[in-house]
Write a structure and sequence with these properties.
Layout: H1 5-8, H2 10-13, E1 20-24, E2 27-35, H3 41-58, E3 78-84, H4 86-90, E4 99-107, H5 113-124, E5 136-140, E6 143-151, H6 158-168, E7 173-185, E8 197-206
Antiparallel strand pairs: 1-6, 2-4, 2-5, 3-4, 3-7, 6-8, 7-8
Helix pairs in contact: 3-5
Length: about 210
């Protein structure tokens, strides 16, 4: 039976359009860092690196590569932590060129650092992409977070961020850091802006 994150991890990947508090457990990711406007070519190339490696792992049995504990699964969606440079933080308007990010794709439990290193080496033998050298494996525990499903254009995300901030006023929690997480559900190339689905998430802590 294929493992499908949409069905098995609904608490993380299927929130409603109203804020909820979740506790995100430890998970392994393939990551790559970057800076600048996500509409530019460099960002797309970094996404390509993540998907190339993730699908190489997914398809490894068909290539005769044996990974201990392997099971059939659906590749996870693209995710990213987003921040701003000091200049960007001081600006009253969003300067996309000042964005700093780490984008990533979650991996199944059987994917270890050793598995990642092996697949990376294999991919580099057939793919000529210098950015492959910037990809890395990382275990991340996000912990307590507030999240919401944002439906609509990326430029309209403030509406959903404001909902989370208002919601937290009624709880014992507050935002821990303005660095936020975005998870892209679906393919933006196949959806109109008003139908885009993006999970937005803030790390939170108890109010002092």
């Amino acid at each position: 039976m294929k493992y499908e994150w949409k069905k098995q991890e609904k608490d993380i990947y299927a929130p409603k359009e109203k804020p909820t508090i979740v506790d995100i457990k430890e998970a392994n990711f393939i990551c790559i860092d970057g800076k600048g406007n996500p509409n530019n070519e460099d960002f797309q190339k970094r996404i390509e690196v993540l998907y190339t490696l993730s699908y190489a792992i997914r398809m490894s049995p068909r290539k005769g590569i044996n990974i201990p504990g392997y099971f059939e699964y659906t590749v996870y969606p693209l995710e990213g932590f987003w921040d701003l440079t000091e200049k960007g933080r001081k600006s009253e308007v969003l300067l996309k060129d000042e964005l700093v990010y780490t984008i990533m794709i979650k991996q199944p439990s059987f994917v270890t650092k050793e598995v990642f290193d092996s697949i990376l080496k294999t991919v580099k033998e057939t793919k000529d992409n210098q950015l492959l050298d910037e990809a890395y494996f990382k275990t991340i525990t996000e912990g307590l977070s507030v999240q919401i499903m944002h439906i609509g254009p990326y430029d309209d995300e403030k509406r959903s961020f404001d909902k989370m901030k208002e919601f937290l006023k009624t709880t014992k929690y507050e935002i821990k850091t303005l660095v936020h997480k975005e998870i892209y559900i679906g393919d933006p190339r196949k959806s109109s802006p008003e139908k885009l689905k993006t999970i937005l998430r803030y790390h939170i802590k108890e109010k002092e």
